[in-house]
Amino acid sequence: MNALMIHGAGGGGWEWNVWSRVFRAAGLAVSAPDLQPAASGLANTRLVDYLAQVRSSAVALPSPRVLVGASLGGLLALANADIADALVLVNPLPPSPWSALLPVREKFPEVIPWRRDASLAGTRRALPDADEAACLFAFRHWRDESGAVIEEAIAGVAVAPPSCPVLMIASERDDEVPASASAVVAQAVSAEFLLLPGASHVGPLCGREAAAVASRAVAFLNNLVLRVGN
């Protein structure tokens, strides 16, 4: 099985370092590219640019293929479910109409300065369930993001219900995407739901329990293979 791992806003393929090791150790091929801004710059990047990149990367992989997405990457994966054999979604931004369940936010600037304004203290607050090494690595690798992309995503994107199996992973202490919203979406798309007690928004990827969470995702995928084989 081939896995395409899609990172969240302000991050990069590095967010999947732990998951990539776990998946590869289980015999899965992994691709975790960085989403790229439009040629005209980050301020002019739109959600459709990221959607096209994910689709292009996914169709280049042999089947069976699984799309693994976190936060914004989860929404991008869900929007491309028609070319996936399975989905693993980690605290995904919900599609419409469930995007209305997200916390109300102020308008974003054209370029969100997450790299420029990053601090180690802020990273520690965002990752209370990660060790110091993981926080330092994340602090050094955050990137700025297109405000328009985030505005479009949280405004709501209509997606077709996935016909493939879905694992929805939600963090109990997620201030960005409430676990209750993920639970509602999971029920709507007939997903298997996994709630992680005490986990933060990025904790399932970079926190102390990241390898264990990745192993549970592998178990979900292995179970699918067994079902098909029978």
What distinguishing features does this structure have?
230 residues, Rossmann fold, alpha/beta, 6-stranded parallel beta sheet
Brief account:
This protein has 230 residues and is of the alpha/beta class. It contains 9 helices and 8 strands.
Q: Can you walk me through this structure?
A:
This protein has 9 helices and 8 strands. By secondary structure, it is an alpha/beta fold. It has a single domain (2-229), classed as Alpha/Beta hydrolase fold, catalytic domain (Rossmann fold), CATH 3.40.50. The strands form 2 sheets. The chain has a 6-stranded parallel β-sheet, sandwiched between helices. It has a two-stranded antiparallel sheet with strand order 5-6.
Helix content: 25-40%
Distance between the termini: 17 Å
User: Strand portion, in percent?
Assistant: 5-15%
How confident is the prediction overall: mean pLDDT? 95
Structural class: alpha/beta
The outline comes out as: globular
Q: Secondary-structure element sequence?
A: EHEHEHEEHHEHEHEHH
Task: Describe the protein's topology.
Blueprint: E1 2-6, H1 17-25, E2 29-31, H2 47-59, E3 65-70, H3 72-79, E4 86-90, E5 111-112, H4 120-126, H5 132-141, E6 145-146, H6 147-155, E7 166-171, H7 179-188, E8 192-196, H8 203-206, H9 210-229
